[in-house]
Amino acid sequence: MPKKAKPAGRGKEEEPVPCKQVKVEIAALPSALNFDSPTELFESLISPINTETFFKEFWEQKPLLIQRDDPALATYYGSLFRLTDLKSLCSQGMYYGRDVNVCRCVNGKKKVLNKDGKAHFLQLRKDFDQKRATIQFHQPQRFKDELWRIQEKLECYFGSLVGSNVYITPSGSQGLPPHYDDIEVFILQLEGEKHWRLYHPTVPLAREYSVEAEDKIGKPTHDFTMKPGDLLYFPRGTIHQADTPPGLAHSTHVTISTYQNSSWGDFLLDSISGLVFDTAKEDIELRAGLPRQLLLQVESTTVKRKLGGFLRMLADRLEGTKELLSSDMKKDFVMNRLPPYHEGDGAELSTPGGSLPRLDSTVKLQFKEHMVLTVGPDQDQSDEKQEKMVYLYHSLRNSRGTHMMGNEETESHGLRFPLSHMDALKQIWNSTAISVRDLKLPTDEEKENLALSLWTECLLQVI
Question: How far is CA 4 from the centre of its chain?
Answer without folding.
Answer: 27
